[in-house]
Amino acid sequence: MKYMLLIYHEEQAWGGFTEQERQKMYAEYGQFSQEIIASGHHLGGSELHPCSTATSVRVRDGKQLATDGPFAETKEQLGGYYLIEAGNLDEAIAIAARIPSARMGTIEVRPVAEAAVPASV
Amino acid sequence: MPPAREELERVFREEYGLIIASLIRRSGSFDLAEESLQEAFSAALTNWEQDGTPTNPAAWLTRVAQRKLVDMLRREKTKSDKQPELEFETQRLQERLQDGNEGGSPPSSEEDLESRLEYQDDRLRLIFTCCHPSLSEEAQVALTLRTLGGLATSEIARAFLLPEPTLAQRLVRATNRIRIARIPYQVPALEVLPQRLASVQAVVYLIFNEGYAATSGDSLIRRDLCAEAIRLGRLLCRLMPDEPENLGLLALMLLQDSRRDARINGRGELVTLEEQDRSFWDRIEIEDGLRLIETALRLRRVGAYQLQAAIAAVHAEAKAALETDWQQIVALYAELKRINPSPIVALNHAVAVAMSEGCEQGLRLIEAAGVGGKLDHYYFFHAARADLLRRLDRTQEARAAYSRALRLTANQVEQKYVRRRLEEATKNGDA
Q1: To the nearest whole angstrom, how far is the Cα of B200 from the nearest Cα of chain A?
Q2: Half-sphere exposure of B370 (CA within 13 A, CB side)
Q3: Can you say how many angstroms the Cα of residue A83 is from the centroid of all Cα atoms in its chain?
Q4: What is the dihedral of CA B103, B109, B113, B114, to 10 degrees?
Q5: Which of B124, B145, B297, B361 is a Cys-bridge partner for B149, taking CB atoms 3.0 to 4.6 Å apart?
Q6: What 3-state class would DSSP assign to B286?
Q7: What per-residue confidence (pLDDT) applies to B99?
Q8: Is residue A117 part of a domain?
Q9: For B158-215, how does the pLDDT look when each residue is reduced to its tens digit (9 = 90+)?
Q10: Would residue A118 count as lying in a domain?
């Protein structure tokens, strides 16, 4: 069963980190990624550039409308994700809890629909 | 009622959780388990009336339901090619039925005992699934009552004053979520067990309180909810007997429930603890509760339920209100305040202080507990404050506080109590 772990954090807080703090965080992420690759849970994942680089696209009445900024203005922003393989929700939650950002932000765990609708994957 | 039907209703009530738990483990699906058990119950209705009630009704139902499961598996399998989710379920079902005993010949008593023990583990798994933090609290309560309690959707809806379709939909959403997010059917890992057990206990106590402190609704259904919560509490104690908070929770519910008949007088009015006729207290429940809390405290891992039960025990041990050991209650509340600081605990502590040290001191602490406005919308805060003001002869203020309390409760019993106090205060004020 695939789960998407969406990492929400305060971009501002991240921006306020010192270079040293940032390096430490990256090191922790690196180690976490290695661990879940080794344990066979890791399917993919990445950090995202900040919301200031986001474009939101909608098509209405056949007309394409692209606007700047994220889909929703929230206190915490989507900053990255992991796609993992886990036996059940408890296992996925346990892995999510090990993501370094879980200590400051929030990890949203979403089951991936592996199904009927042929997505582009 | 024909005896077979009567027996079936008893079995439904007492064994539903037991049987459904094993069916869910075997099928990996709440929906299939429920459907197969419903079919088994229908079959029992005709069968038992013809052939008489079997010696072990639960085993009979389990066996029949398992056969129904196999049938469903075959039916689902033909559909499953197009639906991967179902395929997952049928695969699991197949594996499980292969290693499980499909039944056929009636089990010997030894096998029977073994399978009962296995059921118990199933119910422990089930309770953790039903109370999974990924489900909303409302869904946890509904699902626990439905699956472990065997309450009908209509009964749960009535108890919570909800339209039946609303509750039915809540249950469907919950079981969908369990299936889609794959909420596991297992006892949680050791590192998260304390939090997860706490949320199970919270659900059980929530059910009890819905029945006991009823904010509205009629009393008979309420009584059922309390009985159901106590049953679930007993189950938790049986499943995890070394958890002192399980014992504390059960003791607390029993000790509170023991006062049920004394809480409401012949006119349907709420009677305060102080004014209750203690001869109406249920001695059996009290003794049960006292024994449990003693056992729990001996395990030396104190927690909030144990402390609340200990407080209820002090009340239970006082033959008359005047003999209440308020000093001990104050000490227990102080400890509770330390491990579980909340405005409501602070309020109760204040009321105990009022009883042991005087209304002035108590009122001061009540006002302190109300700072920040967190208790502004809490009936008991205004009612307790009003009572102290009344005792201090501050009639005007008491009247205002009673009026405030009156607006905050939909419970008719509480409303009657406050109205009576208001009338008294008005009379005294006029005199």
Answers
A1: 16
A2: 19
A3: 8
A4: -50
A5: B145
A6: helix
A7: 47
A8: no
A9: 878 889 999 999 999 999 999 999 999 988 988 899 899 999 999 999 899 888 865 4
A10: no
Question: Is residue A116 domain-resident?
Answer: no
Tokens 């949203």 -> residue: A108
pLDDT class of B288 with cuts at 50, 70, 90: very high
| Phi, psi angle pair for B328, to nearest 5° | -65, -40
Site from B130, B182, B192 to mutate, A interface, most A CB atoms within 10 angstroms:
B182
> Is the sign of the CA dihedral B3, B8, B11, B12 positive or negative?
negative
Angle, helices B343-357 vs B359-370, to 10°: value is: 170
CB contacts, 8 Å: A93 with chain B:
134
CATH number at residue A23: 3.30.70.1060
For the beta carbon of residue B402, count every other beta carbon within 10 angstroms.
26
- What ranges do the domains of chain B cover? 1-127
Angle between helices B57-80 and B109-130 (to 10 degrees): 60
Q: Is B338 exposed, middle or buried (0-12, 13-18, 19+ CB in 10 A)?
A: exposed
Looking at B81-152, list the stretches that DSSP marks H as alpha helix, in order from N- to C-terminal side.
84-99, 109-130, 137-143
Q: How many CB atoms are closer than 10 A to CB A45?
A: 19
The two three-digit tokens of residue B411, written as one number = 């419970």
Q: Is residue A76 part of a domain?
A: yes
pLDDT in tens, B232-256: 999 999 888 889 999 999 999 999 9
Nearest CA-CA partner of B304 in B411, B417, B202? B202
Query: What is the Cα–Cα distance from B64 to B227, expressed in whole angstroms?
Result: 29
Number of domains in chain A: 1
Q: How many CA atoms lie within 13 A of A36 on its CB side?
A: 24
Contact B180, B132 (CB under 8 A): no
Q: What is the average per-residue pLDDT within B406-415?
A: 84
Integer Cα distance of B390 and B127 in angstroms: 46
B192, A116: Cβ pair inside 8 Å?
A: no
Does A90 sit within 8 Å of B181, measured CB to CB?
no
Residues in A closer than 8 angstroms to B84, CB to CB, are 114-116
CB contact under 8 A, B192 and A94: yes
The two three-digit tokens of residue B321, written as one number: 């209100």
ipTM of the complex: 0.82
